[in-house]
Design brief:
Low-confidence stretches: none
Radius of gyration: 19 Å
Number of domains: 1
Number of helices: 9
Oligomer: single chain
Shape: globular
Largest sheet: 2 strands, antiparallel
Structural class: mainly alpha
């Protein structure tokens, strides 16, 4: 089997197994805590990978403190309260700042990278738990996020691989193209429309009772923000001179590689569903 075909096969097998696990945890009643723990574990792994990237660049993050803070912030989402999550975020920042001072890690870049990780991976990740905990429609919201991001990634991967010519951000991710990005966007919008049609027909339940324009708006913005999140994580890896953040997901890379889009999109979908004002 050609290396390229073998890699695609490995990606498909890994994605299928991971998706089956996540969908089971998302939809089986009474497993909200299990879902939160699963997210927290991914947050912990993502922070470990992120801090490893910063160490390659010569920074000195507070790795253990940052991982602990981010993981606890994600678990704060179990409360269902954004205020409690924000208190957790504040406490996490206070903790890592204290540890930097106590341990003599006085470099600005080290402290900044530690707090960045707590916010980027921990606080953003907590919104996945908050989403899932929304009464009645939580599982539907998380599933909607999966549909849109999978549609975006699949459209971008297939069309970009076969028809991509114009580089989207060559200095950050040479393989990404404008054709792939546009195809991912279109697939995401179609995915949002399909979810609306199934929900409106009564075929599926526990999804938000939104109008079609609102579903399309969510799909469009989530697709764009997920691609921005992917590029942002690629920029971090490019700066460190590595291809993947880790290897926990065969064929896909590390936890950060697989979760970057979710980190950027889950806060938007949460605030779209639960307005602050």
């Amino acid at each position: 089997m050609a290396p390229k075909l073998r890699e695609v096969g490995l990606r498909i097998v890994t994605a299928t197994i991971a998706l089956a696990i996540f969908m089971s945890v998302i939809w089986i009643p009474g497993l909200h805590t299990v879902f939160a723990v699963l997210v927290a574990v991914l947050v912990m792994l993502g922070l470990y990978e992120l801090y490893a990237i910063t160490r390659i660049r010569g920074f000195s993050p507070e790795t253990i403190g940052g991982m602990l803070s981010g993981t606890l912030i994600a678990l704060c989402g179990l409360s269902g309260s954004l205020t409690f999550v924000n208190y957790g975020f504040y406490g996490g920042c206070l903790l890592v700042a204290t540890l930097h001072v106590v341990r003599g890690h006085l470099a600005v870049a080290g402290l900044a990278s530690t707090i960045f990780g707590v916010a980027y991976v921990g606080w953003f990740g907590a919104h996945m738990v908050l989403l899932h905990g929304i009464e009645d429609i939580g599982p539907g919201l998380v599933t909607l996020l999966f549909v849109i991001l999978i549609a975006t990634d699949t459209g971008a991967f297939v069309v970009g691989g076969f028809l991509g010519r114009r580089k989207l951000a060559p200095k950050v991710s040479p393989n990404k193209t404008w054709e792939g990005a546009i195809a991912g966007f279109v697939c995401a919008v179609l995915g949002g429309w399909a979810v609306y049609a199934l929900q409106d027909a009564g075929t599926i339940s526990r999804f938000p009772d939104w109008t079609l324009p609102r579903y399309l708006q969510a799909a469009a913005i989530l697709s764009i923000t997920s691609q921005i999140g992917d590029l942002a994580e690629s920029a971090l890896k490019r700066d460190a001179g590595i291809k993947d953040s880790g290897s926990i997901f065969p064929g896909h890379g590390g936890a950060l590689d697989r979760c970057d889009g979710f980190l950027f999109t889950s806060p938007f979908l949460y605030y779209m569903t639960v307005p602050l004002f």
